[in-house]
Amino acid sequence: MASYVETTNFKLRRDAFFKNMTRLGLKTRDNDVLSIESTYDGAYNDMIELLRSGIDLAPCYFCTNDIIAYGVIRALREFKIRIPQDVSIIGFDNLPQSSTMEPSLTTIEVSKRKLAILLWPFSTTSSNRRIDSRPSRSSLVLS
Q: Which residue of 8, 92, 116, 120 has the fewest CB atoms within a 10 Å radius of its CB?
């Protein structure tokens, strides 16, 4: 489930999804790729409309982010669709609420710390950058 709101982040996630589905030899049907609002209420309302229209649900949906997943799950439950027995939902971002849901939302976490370490060699904004592969404590700040 992708948002029809175009952001670089959402586009990168969508592209990576299709690239890896192809790499793994898994097929997607065009009608299984749903575009919905990226807010909780928007995802909920859009999913309600899809369910009312009689959509043929896929066995699993990978959502662009956890917020979309939360709204979709709420709508599915209102239609007595069981998660994960009837439809599996996967989120992205690993927001704290994901672990408190029943059942817990399966979600992907992107470690900002690991990302910063991986991208550090490509940084051009720091005049304190070291040439060797080990960043110095004074030149790398992770938050």
A: 8
